[in-house]
Specification:
The protein has 137 residues and is an all-alpha fold. The protein contains 6 helices and 2 strands, in the order βαααβααα. Strands 1-2 form a two-stranded antiparallel ribbon. 18% of the residues are buried.
C-alpha cells in the first residue's frame, strides 16, 4: 500500500478540488431546501429547530448522505497521518455513484439544476462538479 500526504500529494488533487465545491453546493442546496420548507410550513423559529429538521425531517433526508460524504472527504484530506493513495479514487467513485446513480443523486441533480437557473454561482459549480465527476480511465 502506497501512502501520501493528502494536503500535497497529486493523487489527492481531484479530491481537494471536489470537496470545497461539493461543500458550497451542499450549503446552497440546504438554504434552498430551507426556503422550500418555510414556504410550506412557515418560518423556522431558531437554529435548534432548523438543526432538528435537517437531522430528522424527510424533506432534508436526501442531503444527509451528501453531508456524510463530505465528512469522509474531510477525514482523509485533514488527516495528520499519510493516507493510502487508493482512498482518493475510492472517494471520487463513491461521489460519482452517490451523485449520479442513486435516488439521492437524482434529487441532487434536479435541485442543482433548479437552483442553477436563478443562481449563477450554482450554475458554475454544477458545471465544474460535473467535469470533476467524469471518470478518468
Amino acid at each position: 500500500m502506497t501512502v501520501g500526504n493528502p494536503a500535497s500529494d497529486p493523487a489527492f488533487a481531484p479530491l481537494r478540488e471536489l470537496r470545497p465545491l461539493l461543500l458550497k453546493a451542499h450549503k446552497i442546496l440546504m438554504d434552498a431546501e430551507k426556503d422550500r420548507y418555510e414556504a410550506n410550513h412557515g418560518a423556522i423559529a431558531n437554529k435548534g429547530d432548523y438543526l432538528r429538521l435537517v437531522l430528522s425531517h424527510e424533506q432534508f433526508s436526501w442531503l444527509r448522505p451528501i453531508s456524510q460524504l463530505i465528512v469522509q472527504m474531510d477525514e482523509v484530506l485533514m488527516a495528520k497521518q499519510p493516507q493510502p493513495l487508493e482512498r482518493a479514487p475510492e472517494l471520487l467513485d463513491q461521489a460519482r455513484h452517490l451523485l449520479y446513480d442513486t435516488e439521492i443523486g437524482q434529487a441532487f441533480q434536479a435541485r442543482t439544476e433548479s437552483t442553477a437557473r436563478s443562481n449563477p454561482e450554482m450554475a458554475a459549480m454544477a458545471q465544474r462538479l460535473h467535469e470533476l465527476m467524469q471518470p478518468t480511465d
